[in-house]
Amino acid sequence: MKLAILSRAPRSYSTQRLRTAAAQRGHTVKVLNTLRFGIDLSGDEPDLQFRGRPLSHYDAVLPRIGNSITYYGTAVVRQFEQMDVYTPNTAGGITNSRDKLRATQILSRHGVAMPATTFVQDRADVIPAIERVGGAPVVIKLLEGTQGIGVILAPSLKVAEAIIETLQSTRQNVLIQRFVKESKGRDIRALVVGDRVVAAMRRSAQGDEFRSNVHRGGSVEKVDIDPKFQEVAVRAAQIMGLKVAGVDMLEGDDGPLVMEVNSSPGLEGIEAATNLDVAGAIIDYIDNQVAFPHIDVRERLSVSTGYGVAEIVVHGDADLVGKPLGESGLSERDITVLTLHRGVLVIPNPRPRHVLEDGDRLLCWGKLEEMRSMIPERPKRRSRVKKLPKNPLPDSAAG
Ligand SMILES: Nc1ncnc2c1ncn2[C@@H]1O[C@H](COP(=O)(O)OP(=O)(O)O)[C@@H](O)[C@H]1O
Ligand SMILES: [Mg+2]
Questions:
Q1: SS3 labels along the chain
Q2: Which of 117, 219, 319, 337 is packed most tightly, with the most Cβ within 10 A?
Q3: The pTM is what?
Q4: Which ligand 1 atom sits nearest the alpha carbon of residue 178?
Q5: pLDDT at res. 396
Q6: What whole-number distance in Å separates Cα of residue 381 and Cα of residue 250?
Q7: Which ligand 1 atom sits nearest the alpha carbon of residue 115?
Q8: What confidence score (pLDDT) does residue 303 get?
Q9: Considering only CA atoms, which residue is closest to atom 10 of ligand 1?
């Protein structure tokens, strides 16, 4: 394949290793400075210029987008996606993972365990928010910090409040997060490639520092993580839409707590700690997936008028429980089941003989009108305002 590595640091350890790994495997590989691309929307099709000239054909790109150029970098990656060039990390995935609040919102929707987190704006809401996540000491984080900068441990409510007010007064948004004391200044970095963890290391903070980032003096060592940690790391990366990711987890009392998912994980520390060829694993994965450029399913499918995606929950009282999918009547009603979710289990393309159970969730594609009656009613919050009676004025007053 012909691969472009998007990077502004051609000499950095990670870029060098990726380039070498690709070349050793017989691929054509170029390191291209992300900021030298021009996004060309003037012709019939989306196109890219590089250093002022039309870009030649590439089969795949590997984005290594630094934090300081997220906006431009993701625009370039998005343009490659529009041109059907394969990328393991999509622009959407990179954007989602860059912002700690956005990432936390998405992961919590899918039940990924994380340290209790909250986000508030008004002064009056700060103290209750801190108490909601367990009180002081509490962790305060800038939404877009990296390398441990912008992560503060506030020892008391008063200090926490002062820090948050100060940051907000300079228009910086902050997250409030439970301090996971039991992790004792250590965390786990799992390197996810595709659907597996290819390498993992433990990072330990130095002295009385609580942040384990290598840039904060943290040390690293190889670690064999148990399957639960591997499963959580892969799931977090998948949900974020990243096929190459460094997933950071704290070791909580009840298991792994995901802190963040990095879309351009550094390779130096992890290759040194584990002695594993992580760069090679990344290149092999891209080579294997290059035939499947990202397709925005929602975008493509939404042009079929009257059809859409919905989640149907199989309920005890409904007539679906105990029936094989093939006899559920769904396909006769022009409804296709894409995936069946049972607890944490996901069954893609479930077969007609698959027997439905109470609580199964079916992700369906079909006629919206047919699906409407099958969608479970949302638990309504009681409305505070009383409905007006049909005749708001008593008859006597009206007459
Ligand atoms: N809620 C927390 N409890 C305990 N330690 C934490 C918590 N959040 C972060 N840390 C420590 O601080 C480090 C940096 O936090 P992180 O959210 O990963 O920010 P950054 O993007 O700057 O690396 C983590 O690697 C971890 O060691
Ligand atoms: Mg981190």
A1: CEEEEECCCCCCHHHHHHHHHHHHCCCEEEEECHHHEEEECCCCCCEEEECCEECCCCCEEEECCCHHHHHHHHHHHHHHHHCCCECCECHHHHHHHHCHHHHHHHHHHCCCCCCCEECCCCHHHHHHHHHHCCCCCEEEEECCCCCCCCEEEECCHHHHHHHHHHHHHCCCCEEEEECCHHHCCEEEEEEEECCEEEEEEEEECCCCCCCCCHHHCCEEEECCCCHHHHHHHHHHHHHHCECEEEEEEEEECCEEEEEEEECCCCCHHHHHHHCCCHHHHHHHHHHHHCCCCCCCHHHHHCCCCCEEEEEEECCCCCCCCCCEHHHCCCHHHCEEEEEEEECCEEEECCCCCCECCCCCEEEEEEEHHHHHCCCCCCCCCCCCCCCCCCCCCCHHHHC
A2: 337
A3: 0.87
A4: 1
A5: 52
A6: 35
A7: 1
A8: 81
A9: 211
Cα(148) to centroid(ligand 1), Å: 7
- pLDDT band at residue 398, thresholds of 50, 70 and 90? very low
Q: Distance between CA 62 and CA 144 in Å, rounded?
A: 22
For residue 376, whether the previous peptide bond is cis, meaning omega lies within 30 degrees of 0, is no
Place of tokens 């996606």: 81
CA distance 123 to 316: 46
Which of 151, 187, 204, 261 has most ligand 1 atoms within 8 Å of CB, for mutation? 151
The two three-digit tokens of residue 205, written as one number: 């903070």
Cross-strand bridge partners of residue 174:
142
Q: What is the structure's pLDDT at 63?
A: 98
Q: What is the residue-averaged pLDDT of the chain?
A: 92
| Residue range 282-291: mean pLDDT, rounded | 96
Q: Give the closest ligand to the alpha carbon of residue 265.
A: 2
> How does residue 382 score in pLDDT terms, banded at 50, 70 and 90?
low
Reported as a pLDDT band with limits 50, 70 and 90, residue 317 is: low
The closest-lying atom of ligand 1 relative to the alpha carbon of residue 187 is 27
Bigger pLDDT: 109 vs 79: 79
